[in-house]
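Exam revision sheet. Question 4 asks you to relate a sequence to its structure. Input first:
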Amino acid sequence: MSKKPEKTKRATLDFDIDINGLGFMEKLEEIIPVKARYNTGLCLDLLCGRPQVGRYGDVVMNGGIAPYTGVCGAPNVGKSTWMDTMGTILNQRYGIPYLKHNNEADANSERFVDISYYVAPELQEWRYRMHEHKTLRELDLTAYTSADMWETIRQLATKREAQRDQLWKETPFLDEDGEPVRILMPFAHSQDSLSEWKSNVIEKKLDENDVGAKENATFGLMHGAAKTQMVSEIPTMCARGGMIIFQSAHMGDKFKLDAYAPVRKKMEYLAGDLEIKFVSNNWRYLPNNLWWVMGNSPLLKKASDGKYYPEFQMPGFTKIAKDTDLTLCSIVNLRGKNGPSGVPFDLVMSQSRGLIPFMTNFRYIWESETSSGMGFGISGSDKAAWLDIYPEVKFNRFNIFELAEKDVRLQRAIRFTADLCILHERIRNYPRHQLCSAQELYTDIKKLYDWNEFLDTRDYWTWDHYTHPLKYLSIYDLLNFRLGVSTPYWKQ
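Answer key, structure tokens:
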């Protein structure tokens, strides 16, 4: 009689079994206490993260770009621009390689230069030779199929995980023992778009069959299963391989067999008559942030002559009626895992020069609904206004763009004011008694410090955070200085 095969033993963690399971709990590996987010230069960072206490009692804003980001919207509303802007910021501020794969075969690497004018001006020198840039690249279907590109990224993530001891970087964030949190030096990749992504099997079958063949009808199921598997893998890749993944997707009207049937919403903050096209269901909840680009319209304002002109005059350009270069791109976070969801936000963009961070921040305070005057933290009149925390510079709607473009201190004053406005309007868990007006902040701090020194700072954390030539300063620090809770780290 043949011997019965032994049952396969399950792999278990190495721990001493006890009735309460405490041995098991003690043996578990600790998680990284702080998940890094990368600052964008927008007051939006405060809505996509949390402040963290630094080494010297300073407060570092850990918010902005998350490891896994989805961007959806109708055609030609700015999805790719928003996604590529985030990738470019990662590349220029943090030295993170950014590789984009265009699944729609219309790659244009020079677009990185076009949209980087205000977020990464250093790229302008690469305008005619982007193919030589080693850390910022775009490929399309002429070089790699969607599936081949994804398999390459998977292999890279596996290799990075195996070599993680060589990739550790120190952040300014602290663990529970007061030691700097270390993370893997990231690698960023984007798919534009996930809606058009196809597996190699699907590609081959479609090539073999005639258009409209009956066999093609079943490919949709195979296609959906492949996307579901891919999306499911991404959170693990990001966590263990140090990857940052962006994916865009198309949006359109929801198809209804019964025109009179009630609309069923799949996402709370997405309009019921819209749906995200050709993506798996898990894509709606696995990304850390899922941005819906709701629309992109010319930023125009009616003048006394009855014509519509740009709301803000771009420096060096002639004032022309119905000039559509300057646009307002409205976004909302449908799924924010590190901040509030459903909060709309307007981005000021140029079709030729991309995102304009300081004008985005300025328009936020200019249009503040909580202000009873010119805007939050703004005093004066239509012809001569000023920021309460930077009264030396007078501006109006027509010259603010030019003045801010030339004056870095004005940009920082705008950012501080916008962050303070965000705290007043959107951040519900910040102690109300610690808040103040912009005027109070300026008056009280000037009694203690040189205010211009604070305007000569940066608004994003870095790998060399405390040795960087430009000091870092957050709105949380300013509020703490005012209350005497802390002092600038570089003065300690």
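Marking note for examiners. The radius of gyration is 25 Å.
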